[in-house]
Write a structure and sequence with these properties.
This protein is of the alpha/beta class. It is built from 17 helices and twelve strands. Helix 5 packs across helix 6, helix 8 crosses helix 9 and helix 11 crosses helix 12.
């Protein structure tokens, strides 16, 4: 079985993570005590992806829960899911990270990381064939951003061939908890660029917009945001947890969505979006679900897909839906929004159908898009970062934890590079891609020619040495000449 190991880091990550486990436990018929109470064989067919069956026939989440302070862990243990998790899966510190990325990465987090890695190893050893990791964390705080990216780096070093799929909650000035968020987010993205394979971008600003404008909530709470995120996570993982035709594991998902290694940050859309009170009262057609999924107002990141172009996209439908009906709707969307798709990757929308719908809905859809407009999110973070960093505001808090100021500069530079890369591919034509391909081929051929010339020169030298030895014309060393003179005399 292709298992996935789930990590939830920091207060935000643990709250969303627990919501996720609550949702998928219900979908798989698992009670709060870990006992199976379902009524369908499909619920158990691939349950081992996220759950480990104990010797007592209890299903235990493949999860590691991490925080740098004990409060969140105490809340989870005493909550309704407290008996679901393995007690040995909790790792926590005592001092917290104080919303400081450097504390999470260099000091407080570094003290806890070895203990956490031991727990991760034990969970990994319990897997037959682990496909990878998913981690839920916030980029705005100290623990989720700092220790979250530290764990990602350590896991990448120890499991380099396993997939890494973070669900990253992106901070926003409109839903801000701390003034240090631009620093924390920029330093985190710097790490995610190099050490992750597919990043699900979930933006607090977009979540608030959805709550106000689509769900018509007058005073949205964090529990409303968490409910949205857990619904999206359930939709994305449906093809991993239940039988489906496409994207049945994390690697296949990446193969379909990541055309270039660094461009692995995804927009997420979901439909239908309904308030808690109206769930179960709305029934939408496949056409309406498809249009909602591609609607900018349903995107979980505060950037407009109409300002960029889709490199690739994937639509995950849930419910009893005809394959032909879905295929026809995807063709309609691609022809209707043809200007929003790049021309040099044909048929770049993939889709899959999972027969089991989420609770309270007959059908639903989750959308993943690799769109160049994601650079808007990076620009927003980068602008706020630059405003503070050019005055060196709050930098001393990071330096005091062992950071070098050069790391800020490197992170900012890496952020600017990824923005430029997205812009380059947005503006690229088919001819540009061909030119780039042939330039790379020529560089490779030129490199091969140089290697061949060096090889021929080495071979030629070896043949000359061999010829001299055979003909006896090899120059004698001083010691050899003295030896010959002594023998002659």
């Amino acid at each position: 079985m292709r298992e996935i190991l789930h990590l939830q880091v920091g207060q935000c990550g643990n709250q969303i993570g627990c919501n996720f486990w609550e949702v998928i436990s219900e979908e798989h018929g698992i009670s709060q005590n870990g006992e199976y109470e379902g009524d369908s064989e499909l619920q158990l067919e691939r349950i081992n992806v996220y759950f480990n069956e104990s010797s007592e026939s209890r299903f235990v989440p493949r999860a590691v829960l991490v925080d740098l302070e004990p409060g969140t862990m105490d809340t989870i243990r005493s909550g309704k899911l407290g008996k679901l998790f393995n007690p040995n899966s909790f790792t926590f510190g005592e001092n917290g990270a104080g919303n400081n990325w450097a504390k999470g990465y260099y000091t407080e987090g570094a003290e806890l990381v070895d203990e956490t890695m031991d727990v991760i190893r034990k969970e990994a050893e319990g897997c037959d064939c682990m496909q990878g990791f998913q981690i839920v964390h916030s980029l705005g705080g100290g623990t989720g951003s700092g220790m979250g990216t530290l764990l990602i780096t350590k896991i990448r070093e120890e499991y380099p061939d396993r997939m890494m799929c973070p669900y990253s909650i992106i901070p926003s000035p409109k839903v801000s908890n701390t003034v240090l968020e631009p620093y924390n987010a920029t330093l985190s993205i710097h790490q995610l660029l190099d050490n992750s394979d597919e990043v699900m971008c979930i933006d607090n600003e977009a979540l608030m917009n959805i709550c106000f404008n689509t769900l018509k909530l007058k005073d949205p709470k964090f529990k409303d945001l968490n409910r949205l995120v857990s619904s999206v996570m359930s939709g994305i993982t449906a093809s991993l947890r239940f039988p489906g035709q496409l994207n049945s594991d994390l690697r296949k998902l990446a193969v379909n969505l990541v055309p270039f290694p660094r461009l692995h940050f995804f927009l997420i859309g979901y439909a239908p979006l309904t308030s808690i009170n109206s769930t179960g009262y709305n029934s939408l057609s496949v056409s309406e679900i498809t249009n909602q999924m591609f609607d900018p107002r349903n995107m979980m990141a505060a950037c407009d897909p109409r300002h960029g172009k889709y490199l690739t996209a994937s639509a995950i439908y849930r419910g009893r839906i005809a394959e032909k009906e879905v295929g026809d709707e995807i063709v309609k969307i691609q022809s209707k929004k043809s200007d929003n798709f790049i021309e040099w990757i044909p048929n770049n929308i993939k889709h899959t159908i999972c027969d089991i719908p989420p609770k309270g809905e007959k059908i639903s859809g989750t959308f993943l898009g690799n769109n160049t407009c994601i650079q808007e999110m990076f620009k927003r973070i980068g602008t706020n970062f630059s405003l503070m960093f050019k005055r060196k505001a709050f930098v001393h808090w990071y330096i005091d934890e062992g950071m070098d100021e050069l790391e800020f500069t490197e992170a900012e530079s890496n952020m600017n590079d990824i923005i430029n890369e997205y812009q380059t591919y947005q503006e690229a034509s088919l001819e540009d891609i061909f030119d780039q391909y042939y330039d790379d081929e020529e560089d490779q051929e030129y490199g091969n020619e140089e290697e061949e010339e060096e090889y021929e020169e080495e071979e030629e030298g070896e043949y000359e040495d061999e010829y001299e030895r055979e003909s006896g014309e090899e120059e004698l060393s001083d010691d050899d000449e003295e030896y010959e003179e002594e023998n002659i005399n």
